[in-house]
Amino acid sequence: MSTSGTALTHQLFINGCSVPSSDLSSSPLINPANGETIATVSNGSAEDIDSAVKAADAAYRGAWGAMKPGDRATALRNLAAKIRENVEELALLETKSVGKPLSSSRGEVGYAAKVYEYYAGLIPSVCGQTVPISANGTGLTFREPLGVCGLIVPWNFPIVILAWKLAPALAMGNTVVVKPAEWTPLTAIRLGELAIEAGIPAGVINIVPGLGPVAGAALSAHPQVRKISFTGSTATGSAIMKACADDIKRVSLELGGKSPSIVFADADLEKAAGSVMSIYDNTGQDCCGRSRYLVERSIYAEFVERFVANSRAVKIGDPLDADTEIGPLASTIQWNRVDGYVKQGVAEGAQLCTGGGRPTAEQFAAGSYYEPTVFANVKPGMTIAQMEIIPFDSETEAVEIANGTPYGLAASIWTRDVARALRVVRAVEAGVISVNSSSSVHLEMPFGGFKQSGIGRELSPAAMEQYSEVKSVFISAE
Ligand code: ADP
Known about the structure:
Elements: E1 2-4, E2 7-10, E3 12-14, E4 17-19, E5 26-30, E6 37-42, H1 46-61, H2 63-66, H3 69-85, H4 87-98, H5 102-122, E7 130-134, E8 137-145, E9 148-152, H6 158-171, E10 175-179, H7 186-197, E11 205-207, H8 212-221, E12 225-231, H9 234-245, E13 250-254, E14 260-263, H10 269-273, H11 277-280, E15 292-296, H12 300-312, H13 332-347, E16 351-354, E17 374-376, E18 387-392, H14 395-402, E19 410-414, H15 418-427, E20 432-435, E21 454-455, H16 462-466, E22 468-476
Parallel strand pairs: 2-6, 9-10, 9-12, 10-11, 12-13, 14-15, 14-19, 15-18, 17-18, 19-20
Antiparallel strand pairs: 1-2, 3-4, 5-6, 7-8, 8-22, 13-21, 16-17
Helix pairs in contact: 1-8, 3-5, 3-7, 4-5, 5-6
Bound molecules: adenosine-5'-diphosphate (ADP).
Adenosine-5'-diphosphate binds next to α8 and α9.
């Protein structure tokens, strides 16, 4: 970090040092709660990505590669401790750039620390096998790191999603180049600095903020990068996968969703209709957000009434206020996207039950705030992307509607009938399903999508496999 005049400039973090971008390009960062410029950030070029990859490669072949697994675990635990020591600073950076309530940011920073600790704990479990192939020899397997991994991170949960990728990558012994999202690079840059204080050698973690089509594309195409792990939109995921195809780079993708919540007539209606934060949390900017409620027709009217009332009660406000439940959208680009979908929903004939624009109070005028918005009487096939409530008449129809999108990330099923819950769990094409709950993410459980929602799994021991190769060895006894 450096100061020039009064504007704080955040630079790239390569090989343990803050450096400007090679072409001196930079962008302002805007606080979505009030439109103010909070900082200036250097934009990495293809040349900067190359320097970062070379630094990561040298660290992989040098200090990090030579470190004993137990010492790597200690370094990850030290990083978790550093994150906890700096929770207030990190939370404020996250809130000012994403717009999420400060209480949520504090929780997310604390959770990120836990992710590093969890993967530190898994390091001793990375073992191979001995396989008695024949009397004349023995097979051995080794699980080995990949080398330099490129981590491309989105703007909705910056410090959390970085931890989901970085912790297992480092635990397996890889080194990384991180490309944070344009609007939200500050916590990643700070984390790079904290990692040095935690004893992680220079070059192991390099942070190159910049534009997706420039820095992100250069990272995906770089021949020395062995793997790209990406979270973001399906369109960008597809572009990255194409870029990785040239040199058969490993790729894991966590992409968009349009996740259903299926509510049967025998469900606990208060609980199901009370689950509004399953879509409004993080101002609706959550890939697992349950943005389609499919509701059995006999309880449809009552469900809509309760859901709309609960939506109106969500407290929208300044992210720094303690009682705020949702802040602004993360940027004016996001605001325009959301508003475009809402207008499209109205044009397609869906019934707008509540919300549909910027809240009218003066305090919301300068920020990218948007009211919680609900559409009813939505027909499958409409393209709106707000909270929609769709009626169904049978279990088969519910499953058909649930599966009727190109996505398959998450789903919820609300019913007291265990047999039905199990049938629907097996029939719904989604990677993460909860019954009588909207929770999607558990550190100990694999997380990822079916269909166009992605490839590969994050979290749990499964993530370690995504950052490693298996080597099979035969040793002759003859
Ligand atoms: P959004 O959800 O706003 O559509 P994206 O999925 O495009 O966002 O962005 C998620 C991350 O992907 C960001 O870090 C962004 O800079 C990066 N990115 C965007 N375009 C590309 C690209 N062509 N190649 C690599 N990374 C990209």
